[in-house]
Amino acid sequence: MKNIFQLEIIVDENAYDIAVGLLTLEVSFGWEEESLPTGESRFRIHCENAEFIEGLRSTFEARVPSAKCKMQTLEAQDWLAAWRQFFTPVPCGKRFVVLPPWLADTQDFPCRIKVLIEPKSAFGTGHHATTALCLMVLSDLIDAGRVSPGETFLDLGTGSGVLGIACCKSGLKGEGLDIDALAVENALENRVLNHVEEFAVAQGSIDAVPGKTYDVVLANILARPLIELAPLIVQACKPGACLVLSGLLEIQADSVEEAYMAQCLPKPRRVLDGEWCALVWE
Question: pLDDT tens for residues 73-87?
Fold first, then answer.
């Protein structure tokens, strides 16, 4: 089996935009992205072509001198087998549990709605705190009667489709958007896996649904795009809609909150899981 080469790149907030720009231009097959407690962002790129990875490292060292780059060789392995060892059920709130397909028939969670996710590279298996936070908040909003069957939703940054699928299985109908083509492909696969029909998935951002408004808007992305897209995200909310923002660290919450209060929204409720935070307007 071929080796897999990994390039890890860590940049500070000031270099984030140029790093994403370079990755967008150079890495058509996608990358992993993670916000660190330090406020920095970590990117990981995996490829079987060592020359490509070495060239990408050289590009970053030349264009982003402050970036910390580390290249290493990984043993090729059966990634699905590795996932099967790692992927455990994730109960979220009182209503949901995220499961892989091979645990679809488990009897361990008789009172929970099962959301089946085929583990792939797309963000959103439920193991990450931001995804679990959104599912917990959605569960609580349904329990409180603030979200009801028949209402519409927008899942911005849908990733694997986990949030949109949970909405559909709760009686809502709506749309999921993601700028990553691989994430869209995974979300469509999971839509079929869960037998949900009222969930339209497409590639794009909030500007792909101009003029549309929703009863529930879920945006589990990153702090910077949440701030930049604040006017469009607020415009997508019906009067009295529930808005849930996640994908941000607690230390980033103030700046995101300010961007939305500048759009005439009241102060949100904060829900925390470790250093991660969700902002909730209900």
Answer: 877 665 556 556 666
User: DSSP secondary-structure letter at 211?
Assistant: T
142 DSSP β-pair partners = none
Range 204-208, long-range pairs (CB < 8 A, 24+ positions)? 204/177, 204/178, 204/179, 205/156, 205/177, 205/179, 205/229, 206/156, 206/177, 206/232, 206/233, 206/236, 207/232, 208/177
Mean pLDDT, residues 152-181: 95
Collapsed DSSP state (helix, strand, coil) of residue 37: coil
- Dist CA 18 CA 266 (whole Å): 33
Residue 168 and residue 192 in contact, taking contact as beta carbons nearer than 8 Å: no
Determine phi and psi for 98, rounding to 5 degrees.
-95, 130
Cα–Cα distances in angstroms (integers) from residue 245 to residues 138, 182, 217, 223, 230, in the given order: 11, 22, 8, 9, 10
Q: What is the mean pLDDT of the chain?
A: 89
* Continuous H helices in the chain: 16-26, 50-63, 79-86, 129-143, 162-168, 181-193, 223-228, 230-235, 253-261
Q: What is the largest CA-CA distance in the chain?
A: 56
Give me 59's structure tokens. Answer: 């590009």
**What is the C-alpha end-to-end distance of the chain, expressed in Å?**
52
- HSE at residue 264, side-chain half, CA atoms within 13 A, is 7
- Token pair, residue 149, equals 């069957």
pLDDT digits (tens, 9 = 90+) for 196-220: 999 999 999 999 999 999 999 999 9
Residue 127 predicted with pLDDT over 80: no
**Per-residue confidence band for 125, with pLDDT thresholds at 50, 70 and 90:** low
